[in-house]
Amino acid sequence: VQLQASGGGLVETGGSLRLSCRTSIFDFDDYVIGWFRRAPGKGREFVVGISWTGRSTYYLDSVKGRFTISRDNAKNTVYLQMYTLTPEDTAVYYCAVRVGTSSYYTPINYDYWGKGTQVTVSS
Q: pLDDT tens-digit profile of 29-82?
């Protein structure tokens, strides 16, 4: 499984960005595609995830109401729309796939990772 994240960049506080995670075609019975981020000097943090059906989504509390995850199965792509960005959102953002039913919140449970895309929010 291969994942390619893109869409990062530099924005001002209050700005918006849309990240994309394009995946290779795969077929698992149950999986979650998640977005994580790693801010400078911090560990990898779960941000948002979406189930394989698209019917369930999971959000970090601090991004609820500002970030929206969606998927386009025809394009094998998951999107992360981010609004009202703050400097605290500055990080490298990664997308990943968790196969099975373990906690979606924990990075170690994810099996496949893409390279990150840098998001920088200036104050």
A: 889 999 999 999 999 999 999 998 889 999 999 999 999 999 998 999 999 999
Q: Which of 76, 107, 112 has its CA nearest to residue 1? A: 112
* Three-state DSSP state, 55: coil
For residue 110, give the 3-state DSSP assignment. coil
CB–CB of 119/17 below 8 Å?
Answer: yes
Tokens 């924990």 -> residue: 106
Closest among 121, 16, 28 to 79, alpha carbons compared: 16
Mean of all residue pLDDT scores within the chain: 95
